[in-house]
Amino acid sequence: MMDSTNFNSIFAEYKKVVGQFKLPGIDVGALLESRRKDVEAIVEANTTALAGVQSLAQKQSEILRTTLTEVQSLVSRVAQSGGQPAANTGEVVQQALNKALVDMQELADTAYRAQADSVAVVTKRVAEHVEELKTLLQPKK
Q: Which domain of life is it from (predicted)?
């Protein structure tokens, strides 16, 4: 990922080059600056998506750890009872599976929110860009 210092120096160089050209009725510097905001929006969307992926990985780990702990507990109880299945073994397994399903639903909800947040960032920037282009392309008085 590009750090902000490199990003700013590259943009400064682009502005210098573009600033040499004059196009009647178009503020080239403002047009280039609007592109900066587009790139910043994409970086923000990527950051949001990365946070979502990290959250998903953490939740997967929690689901796995919880389910394995419950299964380990069940196996331990069965072993302690002399190897014979406990009367409520089926119920415990069902509860563990139900918990895993609930956790998986939470995982799906987290993924949806992360995607929705990323799309919202880009959608907002597209709307801003359209308005900026309308302003830039209007004849100057």
A: Bacteria
Counting the structural domains of the chain, the total is 1
Read off the pLDDT of residues 29-57 as tens digits, 9 standing for 90 and up: 777 777 777 777 777 777 877 887 788 78
* Of 41, 26, 30, residue with least CA distance to 126: 41
Q: Give residue 51's domain range.
A: 4-136
pTM: 0.51
Q: Specify if 33 maps to a domain.
A: yes
Please give, one letter per residue, the 3-state secondary structure of 89-111: HHHHHHHHHHHHHHHHHHHHHHH
pLDDT tens readout for residues 65-121: 888 788 778 778 777 777 666 566 667 777 877 788 788 778 878 878 878 887 888
Question: From its phi and psi, is residue 19 left (phi > 0), alpha (psi between -120 and 50) or beta?
Answer: alpha
What does the angle CA 4 – CA 122 – CA 8 come to, to the nearest 5 degrees? 15
Does residue 141 sit within a domain?
Answer: no
